[in-house]
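note to self: dont lose this again. the chain is below, predicted strucutre after it. 290 aa total, dont forget to put it in the shared folder this time
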Amino acid sequence: MNRAAIYSRVSTEDQVKEGFSLGAQKDRLRAYCQAKGWEIAGEYVDEGHSGRDTKRPAYQRMFEEKDNWDTVLVIKMDRIHRNSKNFMEMMDDLKKWGKEFSSMQESLDTSTAMGRFVMDIIQRIAQLESEQIGERVYMGMKQKALTVGGPMGGYAPFGYERQEDRLVAKEAEAEVVRQVFEECLKGETTQRIANLLNSKGVAKRNDKPWIKQSVAWILKNPVYCGFMEWDDVVRRGDHEAIIDVRTFNEVQKELVKRIRVSYQKYEPRLLPDDFPSACEEPLADVGAEP
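---
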């Protein structure tokens, strides 16, 4: 008897656009297995995960348990992948392991050359749709960055919390941010600043220790002097600055001094006090650990 691993996935975008639900997927897959006389060896469900990558917990666990099943069954090919490269790599692995893949809606048989060819074409169409969605999201976010002063997305950087659609300083974290800038201007490296924060027991939000990269990210982020940055767009925000523009610019100069590349000269990109309300002038990635 064929042992099937039934896999279902849904994201918020899928539910709104296509009406997919995990319950409906699982019910149809179970009924399909019953009609085919297949044994359900495992049910693997990823909720709220994109099909554009493979870092999904149930997806990973399914392949770790590959000895328990013979066929991966999905209701539709884009439930397993929205990237043709990842899909073909998965198919190569299944072939190497002597496993099969079955898509209920497309009714494709991967044991034939024509089935594999048609499956590749369908997967490439799914990838095209995914990339087009990404392009539309990108353009919308860029337009928002050019015209709106509030934060992009729902994330609040360390030092701030989000209240409605604004960033508001969290004083305890804001004091840490000020200390990071002060220590840098004293000549401390990002690694030594990270060590100092760890020695004082200063907690990050994820409870992980401070590292030099997280310190450098704070030092180079214009959000802390009242600006918003997204991609190549920099504009004044409508939130409270934790440090002033002069301090931010002095830190950028200090970081550039530490870059030790003999064949290339780096210049800090500074923020003027009379910065316009919106500007498509990119910020340089200044600063490096000596």
